[in-house]
Design a protein that fits this description.
Bound molecules: pyridoxal-5'-phosphate
CATH topology of the largest domain: Aspartate Aminotransferase, domain 2
CATH class of the largest domain: Alpha Beta
Radius of gyration: 21 Å
Number of strands: 12
Number of helices: 15
CATH architecture of the largest domain: 3-Layer(aba) Sandwich
Number of domains: 2
Strand content: 5-15%
Shape: globular
CATH superfamily of the largest domain: Type I PLP-dependent aspartate aminotransferase-like (Major domain)
Strand order of the largest sheet: 1-7-6-5-4-2-3
Structural class: alpha/beta
Length: about 375
């Protein structure tokens, strides 16, 4: 039986900038779903990524991250953290173990990866990276946003910290933005590499986190030090909405996977489609890793390349009636994004190629509508480009 850890060291709840009973009820629920010892909600997924690292790193430190991660996280890691004196060393997630080992420096304090990368849809080999991180006495942090704990529980493969953008499937209905950090309680912060955990915190009654909070040192420190100071805590109302989403998460995730598999098979057989990227499909580059880490499905997100490039893709997208065109993803409603005319629209065709983005690439986030209706919508949009 999972035992909820008392998430705050204060005897009574003091102040809603870092602890609130409604938010904490949701934190306990997410910790239980992931099999963690405790969790802390944040006001966005970005805030969760940021605090998960700032809890470990300071100016002069470095960390390793897979290069195939969410674009917003790349900006945070490559530019903003750099301005704070924290270096991100990007590695190819598919690199050999020795290549990854070679990326470590004496000041490397963490490793970061995304279970199912947005939007590349590559599957991260959690066990491979956990092993190498632990050889180097540093924790592995996993962004588990797309799978959610329903499809993958990274702690079972050796990850130490999990983060989410709850804005996506966990909320599921696009009613609030949020994030969460979950602590497995498994990492040994007393291994000599992390003095901030083992030496008195002058700002918090001289507390030594590992002594006072044992296995929960990381998540308590994140709250009492960082959330206290940065204050990016969600409101009780946001947590209330998030909880509604969590109550149906196990049913929705199953249905997203079922719908997306049918859509992926339809697209794969379609003459207008050059290629389909969906790891649950046999033949996908990440199919073997998907079978291991995501045996029940690889979420509702698919990407595919339409023949005819940028202009054909635009015509196709404009012809969709059920699917809406938006940047948001992982929602109950089917939505599409065309990078070449949205996130990368300033680029010329030549620049798009240089950036590795095919003008015909479309990201399709399959929702929970009747799958026959979703496929009918795609069919009529393909007919419109003929
Ligand atoms: C959206 C997203 C984020 C950022 O989350 P926000 O809630 O938008 O701040 C981080 N990681 C992944 C995988 C995402 O899809």
């Amino acid at each position: 039986m999972w035992q909820p850890y008392s998430m705050t060291p204060t005897k009574s709840l003091i102040y809603s900038r870092f602890e609130n009973p409604t938010v904490m009820a949701v934190e306990e629920k997410i910790a239980a779903l992931e099999g963690g010892i405790g969790a802390m909600c944040t006001s966005s997924g970005q805030a969760a990524s940021l605090l998960s690292l700032l809890n470990i790193l300071k100016a002069g430190d470095s960390f390793i991250s897979a290069a195939t991660i969410y674009g917003g996280t790349i900006n945070l890691f490559a530019y903003t953290l750099k301005k704070l004196g924290i270096e991100c060393i990007f590695v190819d997630a598919d690199a050999s173990e020795d290549e990854i080992r070679a990326a470590f420096k004496p000041n490397t304090k963490a490793v970061f990866g995304e279970t199912l990368a947005n939007p590349a849809l590559s599957v991260f080999d959690i066990e491979k990276f956990a092993k190498i991180a632990h050889e180097n006495k540093v924790p592995l942090i996993i962004d588990n946003t797309f799978p959610t704990p329903i499809l993958c529980r990274p702690f079972e493969y050796g990850a130490d910290i999990v983060i989410h953008s709850t804005t996506k499937y966990m909320d599921g209905h696009a009613v609030q933005g949020g994030g969460v950090i979950v602590d497995s309680g498994n990492f040994d912060w007393t291994n000599g590499n992390f003095p901030e955990f083992t030496e008195p915190d002058e700002s918090y009654h001289g507390t030594i986190y590992t002594k006072a909070y044992g296995k929960a040192a990381y998540i308590v420190k994140a709250r009492m030090q960082l959330m206290r100071d940065f204050g990016c805590y969600p409101s009780a109302q946001s947590a209330f909405y998030l909880n509604l989403g969590l109550e149906t998460l196990h049913i929705r995730m199953k249905q997203y996977c079922e719908n997306a598999m049918k859509v992926a098979e339809y697209l794969e057989a379609n003459e207008h489609v050059e290629s389909v990227n969906y790891p649950a499909l046999a033949g996908n580059k990440y199919h073997e890793l998907a079978k291991k880490y995501l045996p029940d499905g690889t979420s509702g997100v698919i990407s595919f390349i339409i023949k005819g490039g940028r202009s054909t893709a635009v015509k196709f997208m404009d012809s969709l009636k059920l699917a809406s065109n938006e940047v948001h993803v992982a929602d109950i409603r089917t939505c599409v994004l065309h990078p070449a005319s949205a996130t990368h629209r300033q680029l010329t065709d030549e620049q798009l190629v240089a950036a590795g983005i095919n003008g015909g690439l479309i990201r399709l986030s399959v929702g929970l509508e009747n799958v026959d209706d979703i496929i009918d919508d795609l069919r009529q949009a393909f007919a419109a480009i003929d």
